[in-house]
Recover the amino acids of this structure.
C-alpha cells in the first residue's frame, strides 16, 4: 500500500501531538512514510518535535519525522498539509479578546471584532501556506483548521479560487459527541445528521440513528432542558468556561425549538450576558495559556527530559480524529459524509451562491460533494446574510487595504452596538495589529 507524506503546518501547535498520536493509531489503514513539521517559530516547534520524535521512535519507528522552518524542505513531496497556524499566537488572541471587552463588546477568538482582527492576521498566513504547497507539492491537499475558519475560507475562495484547500471545524463533531452521549450511544458515528449554517454559526435540523429513525424529539427535549450537558451537571474533564458554554446552549436553542444550535451562536444572541460574565483582565486566552498550552508543553518537555514517552499523558481527541478521517476519505475515495466549509453554490437554495457555508458533504479523492440543504427559514437566513456580509467585507477590506470596509464589517457585526463603538474598537485593533495587518487607508 502507498505510504503517505504529511506536513503539519503550525508544528508548534498544542494540537500537533494529538494529531501525530492519531496518525499512529491508524498506520495499518493509512500508512505513513514521513511526517514533517513546519512552523515559523523554530524554538516553539522544537519542543513539540523533540518530544514527538521520541514518541515515534518508541511506537512507530518506521515513520520518519522532520521539523523545519524552511518552506521548501517542509512542503516538498507531500500528499497532505494539515494546517493549524495561529498568526500572532496567544499574545495576539489576548488582544483580540481584551480590546473589544474594554469597549463593552464580546471579546472572542472567532466571533465579533476579535474574530475580524484574527482574520486579518490569518489571511496572509494561510495564503502563504497555500502558495508553498502549490509551489513544492502541487498535487497535495491542504486540510485547514486555522481560524477564524469562516474568514479564512472566504479569503481562499476569493484569492486562491483553484487551490486544493479544505476548511474544517471540530465544534460540530465535539457537540455531536455530547449529543450521542446524551442519547446513550457510544459515539457520534452511530448518528447521521443534517446541519447547515456558516462556520461557528449553524443548526442541526435532523439527527437519525443508522436505521433511519429520527432522534430529534429526544435531542431537542434534552437540549431545551440541559443544553449540551448531561442533566445540567458539568461535563467531567471540561473547563469551567466550556461547561458554561454547553449549558448556555439551552437558551440559544430556545430561539428555534425545532433545531439544535452551534454553541457559538450565544455570542450573537446573548452578547450582553457574555460581556457581563467576562473578566476584562483574564480572558479565554489566559485560561488556554495557563491550561492547554502549559500542559502540552509541560508534557513534551517531560518526555524530552525523561528520554521516553512511556508515562506520557498526551492523548488523541475528536479534533485529531476528524482531520485524519478527512485525509483517509480523500486518500481512499471513501465518500464519507462530513461537515465541510464550502462555497454554497445552490446547496442552500435561497442563499448567496458565493457564501462559504458549513453543510454535509460526501468526501472522496476529488474533494467534497455538497449535499442539497434546500430552503432555510427567514430567521436563520437573515442572521446568516448579516454574518456573511461581515466576513466578505473583511476579505475585501484586507484585499483593498480599506479602513472603510473594516469599519463597515465591525458595524455590521451583530455583536457591536453602534458605528461609533465599531470605530473606537477598530482604531485600537489597528494599533495592536501594526506588525500583522496591511496598512488601511
Ligand atoms: N477550526 C477549528 O475548529 C479549530 C479547532 C481547534 C483549533 N483551531 C485553530 O488551530 C490553530 C492552532 O491552535 P493552537 O491553540 O494550538 O495554537 P498555537 O499557538 O499553540 O499553535 C499555532 C502555531 O502556529 C505557528 N504559526 C503562527 N503563524 C505562522 C505562520 N505564518 N507560519 C507557520 N506557523 C505559524 C505558531 O508559531 C504556533 O506554533 C488556531 O488557528 C486555532 O484557532 C481550529
Ligand atoms: O478556547 P479554546 O482554544 O479551548 O477553543 C477554541 C476552539 O473551540 C472549538 O474547538 C474545540 C472543540 O469544540 C472541542 O470539542 C475540543 O476538541 O476542543 C476544541 C479546542 O479547544 C472550535 O471549533 C475551534 O474553532 C476553536 O478554536
Ligand atoms: Mn471551529
Amino acid at each position: 500500500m502507498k505510504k503517505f507524506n504529511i506536513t503539519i503546518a503550525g508544528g508548534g501547535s498544542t494540537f500537533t501531538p494529538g494529531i501525530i498520536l492519531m496518525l499512529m493509531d491508524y498506520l495499518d489503514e493509512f500508512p505513513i512514510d514521513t511526517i514533517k513539521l513546519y512552523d515559523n517559530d523554530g524554538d516553539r516547534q522544537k519542543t513539540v518535535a523533540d518530544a514527538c520524535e521520541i514518541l515515534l521512535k518508541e511506537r512507530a519507528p518506521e515513520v520518519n519525522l522532520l521539523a523545519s522552518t524552511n518552506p521548501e524542505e517542509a512542503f516538498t513531496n507531500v500528499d497532505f498539509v494539515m494546517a493549524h497556524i495561529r498568526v500572532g499566537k496567544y499574545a495576539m488572541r489576548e488582544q483580540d479578546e481584551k480590546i473589544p471587552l474594554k469597549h463593552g463588546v464580546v471579546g472572542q477568538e472567532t466571533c465579533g471584532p476579535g474574530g475580524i482582527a484574527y482574520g486579518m492576521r490569518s489571511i496572509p498566513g494561510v495564503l502563504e501556506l497555500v502558495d508553498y504547497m502549490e509551489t513544492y507539492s502541487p498535487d497535495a491537499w491542504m486540510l485547514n483548521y486555522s481560524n477564524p475558519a469562516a474568514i479564512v475560507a472566504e479569503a481562499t475562495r476569493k484569492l486562491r479560487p483553484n487551490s486544493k484547500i479544505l476548511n474544517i471545524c471540530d465544534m460540530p463533531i465535539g457537540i455531536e459527541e455530547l449529543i450521542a452521549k446524551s442519547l446513550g450511544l457510544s459515539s457520534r458515528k452511530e448518528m447521521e445528521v443534517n446541519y447547515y449554517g456558516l462556520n461557528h454559526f449553524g443548526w442541526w435540523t435532523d439527527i437519525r440513528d443508522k436505521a433511519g429513525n429520527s432522534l430529534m424529539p429526544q435531542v431537542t427535549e434534552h437540549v431545551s432542558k440541559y443544553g449540551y450537558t448531561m442533566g445540567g451537571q458539568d461535563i467531567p474533564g471540561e473547563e469551567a468556561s466550556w461547561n458554561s458554554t454547553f449549558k448556555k446552549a439551552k437558551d440559544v436553542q430556545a430561539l428555534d425549538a425545532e433545531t439544535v444550535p452551534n454553541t457559538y451562536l450565544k455570542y450573537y444572541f446573548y452578547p450582553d450576558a457574555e460581556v457581563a460574565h467576562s473578566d476584562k483582565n483574564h480572558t479565554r486566552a489566559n485560561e488556554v495559556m495557563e491550561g492547554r498550552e502549559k500542559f502540552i508543553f509541560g508534557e513534551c518537555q517531560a518526555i524530552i527530559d525523561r528520554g521516553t514517552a512511556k508515562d506520557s499523558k498526551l492523548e488523541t481527541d475528536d479534533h485529531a480524529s476528524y482531520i485524519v478521517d478527512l485525509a483517509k476519505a480523500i486518500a481512499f475515495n471513501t465518500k464519507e459524509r462530513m461537515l465541510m466549509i464550502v462555497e454554497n453554490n445552490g446547496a442552500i437554495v435561497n442563499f448567496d451562491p458565493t457564501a462559504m457555508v458549513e453543510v454535509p458533504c460526501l468526501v472522496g479523492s476529488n474533494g467534497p460533494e455538497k449535499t442539497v440543504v434546500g430552503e432555510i427559514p427567514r430567521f436563520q437566513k437573515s442572521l446568516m446574510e448579516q454574518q456573511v456580509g461581515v466576513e466578505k467585507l473583511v476579505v475585501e477590506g484586507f484585499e483593498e487595504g480599506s479602513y472603510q470596509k473594516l469599519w463597515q464589517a465591525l458595524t455590521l457585526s451583530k455583536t457591536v452596538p453602534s458605528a461609533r463603538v465599531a470605530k473606537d474598537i477598530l482604531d485600537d485593533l489597528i494599533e495592536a495589529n501594526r506588525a500583522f495587518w496591511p496598512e488601511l487607508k
The pocket of LEZUNG72 (ligand 2) is lined by residues 109-110, 147, 169-171, 174, 284, 288, 317-319 (CB under 6 Å). The longest strand covers residues 201-209. The longest helix spans residues 112-136. The chain is about 50% helix and 15% strand.
